[in-house]
Amino acid sequence: MKKVVLALLVAMLVPFVGQAQEISKNEQTDYSKWQFRLRGVVVTPDESANIEAIGGDVDISTTVIPELDITYFFTKNIAAELILGTTKHEVSAINTAVGEIDLGSVWLLPPTLTAQYHFYNGNFKPYLGAGINYTIFYGEDEGPVADNLTYDNNVSFALQLGLDYTLNNNWFLNLDVKKLFLNTDVEVDATSALGATVGADVDINPWLIGFGVGYKL
């Protein structure tokens, strides 16, 4: 599904790229500096892992969350967006030497700041963005096997592609796709069950596919 959505957004964006330089000086002042969006977002990890000693891979659940973003426009085309949301995922180690291991769940708080370029053609307003993310792991539930779990907070890069559709002077609809290139080091203290502490290098790399409504001041 994420590939289909991404392809559709790219197809909608292409006709507008050549028009970006045609905006007149007067048009540059005809925009709202502040925009707010509320989205429902599907968070789909594109996960993989290198697990010490026992081998195997990782499985991280897909989840749906609300997301709030705040956008400030420096010019009609150039903006910065702060994306706020938190998500909970179930985690398992799979295909290991000792079988599947339920590692409980963990919450992620990934505030993300992107710089954006917006294109204009009537009611359709596509945009491209890139920026940085800092993910905080918290609220770990170790599950039935581990005595303790530690996830390292980390900085990652973010890419963004989206489309606003204007309804009236203030309200608009939004479709947005983001990709975070997120990695974390995990330490699993499984002394009671396995007699060892196991480390893992985990790539989470989630896709975030959102749809929602926005308001501009």
TrEMBL record:
Pfam families: OmpW. Residues 1-20 form the signal peptide. Keywords: Signal. Transmembrane segments: none annotated. InterPro entries: OMP/PagP_B-barrel, OMPW. This is OmpW family protein.
